[in-house]
Structure formats: C-alpha cells, structure tokens
Amino acid sequence: MAASKEVISLQFGHFSNFVGTHWWNIQESGFDYSSTSPSEINHDILFREGETRLGQTTFTPRLLLVDLKGSLGSLPEHGGLYEADHEEQPEPVWVNQVDVQRKEKFKNNEFLADLANEEKTGQPLPVDKQYKLDEYVDVWSDFHRTRYHPRSINIIKEYERGSETSAFDAFPQGTALWKTDFFEDNFVDSIRRYAEECDNLQGFQVIADAINAFGGLACSATQFLADEYSNKSIFCIPVGHGSYAERLACKETLRIANVALCLQTLATHSSMMAPMSTSRGFWQQDAVPRLLANVEYRAHLPYHTSSLIAATLDGCTLPYRLRNGQGMADLENNLVLSGRKAVAASLNLPFPLEGNLLSTLEEWEGPLLQGMSACCDQENDRVWVQSVSIRGVPVTKLKGPNAPNNSSNPAFTATRVDEMLRYFLQCTSPETKSHVFAAALPCQVGAPFPNIFSPRVSPSGSLLPDDQPNTSGVRTVPMLAGLHSSRSMGAMLESLQGQAAHTHWRNLPQLAEAGLERDDYNESLEQLMQFAECYNEEFEV
Amino acid sequence: MAAISLLNPKAEFARAAQALAINITAARGIQDVMKTNLGPKGTMKMLVSGAGDIKITKDGNVLLHEMQIMNPTASLIARASTAQDDMTGDGTTSTVLVIGELLKQADVFISEGLHPRIVAEGFDLARKKSLEVLDSIKIKVDVNKEGLSGVSRTALKTKLHPKLADQLSDVCVDAILSIYSKDTPLDLHMVEIMEMQHKTELDSKLVKGIVMDHGARHPDMPKKVTDAFILTCNVSMEYEKSEVASGFFYKSAEEREKLLKAERDFIEKRVQKVIELKRAVCAGNNKGFVVINQKGIDPFSLDALAKEGIMALRRAKRRNMERLTLACGGIAMNSFDDMLPEHLGYAGLVYEHVLGEDKFTFVEECKNPQSVTILMKGPNKHSLVQMKDAIRDGLRAIKNTIDDGCVVPGAGAFEIVANKELMALKQTVSGKAKLGVQAYAEALLIIPKVLAQNAGFDTQDSIVKLLEEAANTGLPVGLDLSTGEAMVPADSGVFDNFIVKKQIINSCTVIASNLLLVDEIMRAGMSSLKG
C-alpha cells in the first residue's frame, strides 16, 4: 500500500494565494531530480501525478485556490499546463462573423520571461540571478513558478479585485457566495475529484484571508469539509497581511468583526488552526511589524510578508510531510488539548548556526523562536505543548569534534538533531511538552523568494562577519519553526473578542447588508468568548 | 447647491436633468454593447483575456458576467438582467435592450418638459396592458416532443450554431421527457451534464443512464460489466483516524495495537457483507456486481472487492446517489446492516472510458431510467463551456414551458401585437400619461428592430411590414429572419417562454421607472463620477 497520506490544499483569497504561491515555490525548489535515494520529504503528500492529453506526465499540487476576477495577471485560468496555446486550435465555423475583443497581453516580468524561456529551450533558470521583483509584483502570479492543474484555479466572477462599487470585504458575503451554484456544485465537485484519487487521504490544509469576505467563504468550506469528510483532519491557517492602504476607521472595525467571526467558525469546524501574520495585530490599521533578526523585510509589501508566512508554514507542517513523520491527525492530537484548537506559530529564519548545533544552542539567549501569530510572543508565555521543527542542520553539524562521547550530559550523547533539540527545549522550558522534528535539508529561499535577508547572511544561510557583506543573494537557509499551544493565544482571542464586542452593531452596516442578523453576530462573539475561556488555566484539572 | 456639499465639500453630485442624462447614457451604453448579439443572427463575441484565456459567447448573461462594468447605473441594469437569467434562464439581452429603449423613448418627452413621474405612470398603465396582451396570445402546449422542441430550439439557436442547436434541442427535450412524470415537479438536477474534452461538439448525445467522472481504482477490477447489479451506498470502507487511537484509552502498546486491529476488522466486516451479498445474488449466473460508494474505499477494501470480481467506485457525487437510484432502481444504503437483494439496482451495461488522466464510467441500459445524462463533447474547454451554458438554458426553457403549460409566439410577434394594443390604449387614457404609454409602445419595438438589424435587413422597412401585416391579418406576426418578410411564428415553430416575457415586462418597467425618477446622484468619499 502506498505510504503517502495525501493532503488536499485549499487557498481562499488574494493574500492567501501570495502565501500559497511562495509555499508551492518553496516546495518545488525542494525537488531533487538527481538523487537516487528517496527524499526526506515525501512530496506525494502534497502533489499528484497526472497525465496531459498529449500523454506527458505532470506533477501538480493537489490544490484548489479561489480568487477574485482580475487577480490572475498573466496566468491563464486553466493553469496553462494541460491546454496548449489556444491560438493554434481550429475554431469551430460559425455562420456569422465573430467579434473579437482582445485585451492587451500581459507583459511578463523578468522572472516570468526566464521561466517561459526555460520551458521553451530547456535551459535551466540561472541559479544565481537576482530578480528585483519588489516593484513588479502586483498579483501573486507575478512570481509563481509551480504549474497548476486546470482544476486548481477558481475565479469568483461576482466581485472584482480592487473594485470600488462591489468590495468583497464582509464575512457574510463569503458565506452567501458559498451557496451559489459555482461553489455548491463545481467547487465541491473539484474537492471530491481530488479526494477520489487519494488512497489514503489524511486531511485538508486551508489557508484563508481572515480579514475580508474570503474568511466567510473559507469557513463555509471548512464546515462543508467537516460534514462531508468527517474523520479527516482540517488544518486551517487564517492569514493577514497587516498593512492597509485605506486609512478608514470603519474598515478597521469591519476587519475586527471579520477576524472574530472567522476564528469563531473555524474553532468550531476545523480540527486545528494557526493564525499567522507578520504583525502583532494584523487587523489593526497601524499594526507593528515584527522584527526578525537578520531579516530586513518591507512590511507593506505582501510579496515580503507572505514569504515569511510561507516559510513558517513550511517549517511547521514538516511533521506530516516527512517520509518518516507523523500524520496530520497525530500532530493535532499532540497539540490540541482541552479544545484549544488555536495554536500559535513561530519562526526562526535564518537559524544562525554557528559551528555546530550544540555550541549554537549553548550560547543561545532569549527565546529560540519569534512568534508569527497575532499578539503571541514567545517570551514569558506559558506554553503547554509545542511542536518544533528544525530544517537544514545535518547530523555532521550536530556537535563539535571534541565533544566527549560518553559524558553523562545527554546533550553530548545525542546522535540525532531532533534528540539534541528536544533535550535543549526540555532544559529551557521544563514545563512544556515538546515534540521535535528534523530535516537535514534546508529551506529553499532562492528566487523567486524575495531577498529579504540582511547582507550578513551568506548564500547558504550561515552568518558572515560584519565586514564581508554578501552580495549574491541567499539560496538556502537553516530554519526553525514551531506550533505552540499557549496561554497567549487565549489572551489574543479575548482581546479580539473585546475589541469586536466594543464596536456597536450600527457601525458595522456591511455585515447587515450582507445578510447577517445582529443576534447571530452577538451569539458568535459569545461563542468566541467561550472558546477563549478554554485557555484559562484555572479551569484545568 | 446640494445639501451633501455642506457636509462633505469634496462630494460630487449631479442633479435633475444632469442625473437623468447620466442614467440614460449608461443605459444606452450597455444597450449598444449587447445589441449585436440578440437573436439567432446575432454575432458571436470572442473575449481574449490578457493571459490568453478564450471565451466565445453569444449569451447575454455570460457577457454581462465577463464584462468589467464600472458605471453604477450600468451595473444596476446588468444585475437586473442577470437576475432575470437566474430566475428564468433566458431573456438577458432583451432586458438590457428594453430598459435602454424605455429610457431613450422617455427622454424624448422629458426633454420637452414632461415630468418623469407622469412618464412612470404611463409606463405602469402600459405594463398592465402588456401583461393582458401577453395572456391573450399565449398558446397552450402539451408535454410531448413537438410541443417542447419549438421553444427549446428557439432558446438554443440564439446561443449556438444552428446545426448544433437543432441537435442539442432534441437532446434536451428527450432528456426532460425521460425524467418527466405528470404529478411531480420537475427537478433539473436529475439531468446530469457531463463534459468530455474529446471529438467534436456534434458528437454530444443523450445517455439514458448515468455517466460518472471517475472509475474503478484497482487494476484488477473489471473494466466492463454486463447485466449488473448496482449497489449504491454511502458507507465508509476506509480505515481512518480513529477516536480510540488518539486518546488515553489504552495503557500499553499492545493494547493500542489491539484497538487498531479491532478498528480495521470493523471495516473488513463491512466489505465482507458486500461480498456475501454479491455471492448470494450472483451465484450460478453470469451477472456482474458494481458498488458505487459516496464515501471512500481504501486500497485494502478495493483489493478484497477486486478478488471477487466486483467493480467498485468510490467518492461518487452526492447528487449521483439520488440519480443512480432513479436510473437503475434500488435504494441508496446508508449502512450494510439488513441489506437485501431488493435494495440493489440494475443496469445492462457498465463500462469505463479513459481519456488521459480522466476516467469516465457509463452506467447504461437501465430498465426505466428516470435520470439521464447529457454527454457533451468538444475539442476544447471554451466550446464545452459555451455548450454547457446553452444546454442549461435549453433545459430551463423546457422546464418553464412545462411549468407554464403554454408558450408565446417568438420572433418579435408579441412586441408587435403589444405595440398595436398599446396604441389603442393610448386613445383611451386621458391626460399626459398617454405619452408614457406611447413611449412604452415604441420602446417594445426595439426587439423586432434589433432582430431585423442583426439579420441584415432595413429596420424601418421590416417594422412597417410587420405592423401592416399585423393590422391586416390580426394575427401575431413575427419576422422571418431568412427572408425579412412577415410570418406567423407558430407555423415555423418559433416560440418564447411565457414567464420570460412576463418577467421582462415587469422588471424592465420597474427599473426604467426607478431610473427615470432619480433626480440626484451623489458620490462622496470615492474617486470620480465620470469614470
């Protein structure tokens, strides 16, 4: 029996697709075509093998993404893999003339042009080439590399990206949209067709924009999944960019309401969720961007913030992607205790490995990981359980050559990376139960991943002395990422609930307009409160 | 000075005549776009996006969904007409045309000083009269092939190539007739529409049975089964994450293993039940056995079933559960306890068809299929999409006909009769509302006018011919698009849906009146009104 336990990925919303695009790019650059032994990471979990009409084998993500009309840029709706260029196909003959309305062709940016060139001539992408995509990236397809299956892309025709007259920004709009034929028939059918192909489906991974109506759509989808595919895991990742161009107070109150509704619904229907964002309160107008050591990202660019979220996701999903790892269900069983379904995510990118892991950890000061969920900092937090993954530390870099082998100190006797890290975590936070996973392969951050690293980071991710700045870009970095069930998540939910309850219903006309009743809204907030109470330790037995 | 500018000095506003002018321009703008695709002789529109996506269409509804409409008035009209489509499946282009024309005709009088309110009153009188006219010219039809093909052909011809329209119209009528039963309401979901990217459009056909878009997932399972029992079920045959494996219900590793094994046994028992039933019904004969499950079937279970020569399909569409039992008989099982041979359905032929990575399973030769499949074929995605939209509208047109029990003559016949009657009504109306009625009567003529124009005839010439012919014969006459002469639509089988026309009259009048009565447009806080 095939050992792969398949996961179906769903992405709802433009920012989610930014995250998703980075995530798939990272996955694809991790493919190893030369090696003969099976890779550490089982790519069959996320990808599927297929065949085009011309008999070519394809390897595409088991993915469904949803976005608004006008967000695809130069990417054709069918993904461009299965259908050859349309222009060459014979058109049916019509009795009448045909009016052709042709929009101007999108111009490819430098990266996409190189990619198209690779396809045509078979020349591989220049490895060290640096693309200055920061200014050019407008939509996610501007830096997208992985080819998608024709089923993958789903475009909402009712709303348009950036439209003034019909904004898609209130939670109930999303839930209402789910009830249209397009979602109830076509979209659900696409999920089913992916599920039908899987021998051993373990669950779904849902990335969703929490701050707008996509949250509503994702919640309805999650509800459907929980209903139709009961017993399968549903891991939800509500995300937010955290920097907003419109400076309107009413937009902020609406965002708070959306996030509150979204988290409450996901708490009911998902099996685990990890809200992620690069700022402390991503629904706030002036959210403070988090500072990461050796990373210089621009908080107003979704291209940058999404890349960090994607890297976090890459790290913390490692447990169920490793060939010898656990399943999604096990990860959830480890982390979700007493109904605390929301977990905080964290990241340490790049993990500054100096010499070997042992010496790096010995000299480590402060929290090992930087929080990537709203309001959840790693310092001074009560963490009950955590799952920490480490990438890019090979066994050869475990400890120095002169470390005593038979010492009574378990740190010296550890023979595996996860063992060492587990011991470290046990010592530094003894009251936290830690699950540790390790992969020797580092995280791939070559183009089109944005070059957000400080000049101190070398191409392979180690730290350089201050006087030798790196100018050639970073290709791979070691990293740490984790999921934590912690007290601060409860505090975040409480404060969110407080802020949402503070706003008077009449200041949220968009919700009523989109068909949400006031009583239902209040009840949702009530349930969010109850959910937040799960995190109170006073009630613990 | 508008009050809003005291509150917000940046607000833009347009008042009275100016506001009306904005609305009328918008309505006429969208009318101009849609005009050319009315009727069977309308042009096709091919939309090529910046990324190379192609869409070929003539369907007003599809066009309105594809277009980027920035003007608020235009998008209001667009929404009204897509609502028309949601409700009845046809008449989107007509709605846009009539609204635009009503505003244009009203503008003539309003610019001469008539108050919009009076026009609106006239419109309302005219609307009531038009509904009476519509009622008087409707033709009763029976539910049979001749009765229904006229209307479905008319609906499809406005959306597809005539040759294809003829063929699909027959397919649609046959599909509806097979699922129709006298006393139960018609459920269009019982007609499955399946697409195969393969061959050409003209290979599309009706399958009296069910076609599914997945196949058996085991290499040893039979690819073709004849004379088969069909078991439709919604029972998981998949070993899943179990509740016991996760909690604190076990003390040792052995105990956990034992619990896991028990879980596995549980699934195996289910599979065994199916196998036993198969053995019971297929003993001593050559009959086949097919399991179609809405839930998953894991490789172990598939293997066990394959060994028995059972063809098993997993994760069938939820709706197919209902369709299958209607097509093959039997009952969809939610559990395997108390399963009896009576619960099984029957199909004469079940086979698999593979196209690239897509598999299709045909369940055919059913005894009395009350659920059927329209199988669309086409060489590329956009032709399939276009066909799907058209088939959907064709089915809706037939359903409307059955629901109404009647049709109205098409080819502009209704509009001509209504025009005549409204002109007569005008004489009896006292006061200035008369002018509103007149404007309405003129506006309705837009439909035959555009039909004539799209077919390449002189508009005035054709209208005059039609009006004369109608006055002389007293019959509802329409335009023959191949000759440009008047004809009796009933003779050549050109029919429209009663409900579609009714809906057009109602919604167009309301929207046009509302737009006329707008005397101030304001916009605060956002960019520009001119956009």
How is the quaternary structure best described? heterodimer
Largest sheet of chain A: 7 strands, parallel
Q: What's the overall geometry of chain A?
A: globular
The largest contact between protein chains, plus residue counts on each side, is: A-B, 63 and 54 residues
Keywords (chain B): ATP-binding, Chaperone, Cytoplasm, Nucleotide-binding
Protein name (chain B): T-complex protein 1 subunit zeta
GO molecular function (chain B): ATP binding; ATP hydrolysis activity; ATP-dependent protein folding chaperone; unfolded protein binding
Family (chain B): Belongs to the TCP-1 chaperonin family.
In terms of topology, how is this protein built?
The complex is a heterodimer of chains A (541) and B (531).
Chain A: E1 7-12, H1 14-29, E2 47-51, E3 57-61, E4 63-69, E5 98-102, H2 110-121, E6 153-160, H3 171-178, H4 181-197, E7 203-209, H5 213-228, E8 233-240, H6 249-269, E9 272-273, E10 276-277, H7 302-316, H8 318-321, H9 328-335, E11 344-348, H10 357-362, E12 370-371, E13 383-391, H11 410-413, H12 417-428, E14 433-439, E15 443-444, E16 476-477, E17 479-486, H13 487-502, H14 509-513, H15 518-533
Parallel strand pairs in A: 1-4, 1-7, 4-6, 7-8, 8-9, 8-10, 13-14
Antiparallel strand pairs in A: 2-3, 11-12, 11-17, 13-17, 15-16
Helix pairs in contact in A: 1-7, 3-5, 5-6, 6-13, 6-15, 13-15
Chain B: H1 4-7, E1 12-15, H2 16-35, E2 44-48, E3 54-57, H3 60-66, H4 72-88, H5 92-110, H6 116-137, E4 139-140, H7 145-157, H8 162-179, E5 191-197, E6 205-207, E7 210-212, E8 224-233, H9 243-246, H10 253-282, E9 288-293, H11 299-307, E10 311-313, H12 318-328, E11 345-355, E12 358-364, E13 372-378, H13 381-404, E14 406-409, H14 413-428, H15 433-444, H16 446-454, H17 459-473, E15 478-479, E16 486-487, H18 489-492, E17 495-497, H19 498-517, E18 520-523
